[in-house]
Design brief:
Elements: H1 2-7, E1 11-14, H2 23-32, E2 37-41, H3 50-59, E3 63-71, H4 78-98, E4 102-106, H5 115-136, E5 139-142, H6 159-169, E6 174-179, H7 180-183, H8 189-198, E7 202-207, H9 231-240, E8 247-249, H10 254-257, H11 261-275
Helix pairs in contact: 4-5, 8-9
The structure holds zinc ion.
Length: about 280
């Protein structure tokens, strides 16, 4: 048991992995299973007071790794772009209130305009919210998404693009969240992880697996070991940069959400110990 607990010291679970659970249920059950860190999806904060959320986390001595998610900056419509800024400012307030040191940005994309324009608007959006993030002591992580989402969820699709953008912005508060699901296929991944880490931008590491076949673009992620991603190799490259952060399990799966969530949690822990 002691060695299992030690093996879990770098494990963080995203609340979205056990989506049917409330924040209280996530915290209670993760804690009971020996998981000491959590990434909070904003949906679990709906309908509860932020002080109450902080108390739930503190009472269980649960470390918050990040808040998911901000972003969705680009739009052909300037009104929508302004609304996105407001929503990101709200996310910064929420993160500060619950003690989350980092917000993950799913940057967005609008297919009615060129990807280049969307990327410019992403950069502009980050620069607009950066003063508030710095004032709150909350960092921002650009998460490059798999190119299958380039038209509607993110115009940032490779680690190279994300690192370039963090370089251009040039703030210690802006870095990158690396998710194996989005980046495993990239033949430049090892080189780009090295560069991202060397430039001081590697803020977060997300794991799950790519199922073959994948039956849904969004909600069919696999448990570690269930697909074709060499998670250990990628984790090795990440740790070689000096990264000492958490391994965050983030599995969106309509199949897993239908199952008993306590059993699912144990599956996650087992898969983490054996396949990552
Ligand atoms: Zn992710």
């Amino acid at each position: 048991m002691a060695s299992v607990i030690k093996g879990l010291s770098k494990l963080c679970i995203h609340t979205q992995t056990t989506k049917p659970w409330s924040l209280q249920e996530c915290v209670t059950n993760y804690s009971k299973a020996g998981v000491k860190a959590i990434t909070i999806w904003r949906n679990v904060l709906e309908g509860i007071n932020l002080n109450e959320a902080k108390k739930i986390l503190d009472d269980a001595d649960m470390k918050v790794v990040s808040l998911c998610r901000g972003g969705f900056f680009p739009s052909v419509d300037s009104k929508r772009r302004n609304e996105a800024i407001d929503d990101n400012l709200l996310a910064i307030e929420q993160a500060a209130a619950i003690g989350a040191p980092l917000i993950v940005l799913v940057c967005g994309s609008d297919s009615r305009q060129p990807l280049e324009t969307s990327r410019e608007q992403i950069k502009e959006g980050i620069l607009k919210i950066l003063p508030a993030a710095e004032a709150a002591g909350v960092k921002l992580a650009i998460e490059p998404l798999h190119p299958m989402y380039a038209a509607d969820r993110s115009a940032v699709n490779t680690l190279q693009q994300a690192t370039d953008m963090a370089d251009e912005i040039g703030s210690p508060f802006v870095g990158v969240a690396l998710d194996v699901y989005h980046l495993w296929w990239d033949n430049n991944l090892e080189r780009e992880i090295k560069r991202c880490g060397h430039n001081g931008h590697l803020f977060a590491f997300h794991i799950c697996d790519w199922k073959v076949p994948t039956t849904d673009m969004l909600l069919d992620r696999g448990m570690m070991g269930e697909g074709c991603v060499n998670i250990r190799q990628i984790r090795g490259w990440v740790e070689d940069t000096g990264f000492t952060g958490f391994n965050e399990v983030e599995i969106f799966s309509s199949t897993y959400w239908e199952q008993d969530q306590e059993q699912l949690l144990h599956k996650v822990i087992n898969a983490y110990l054996h396949h990552s």
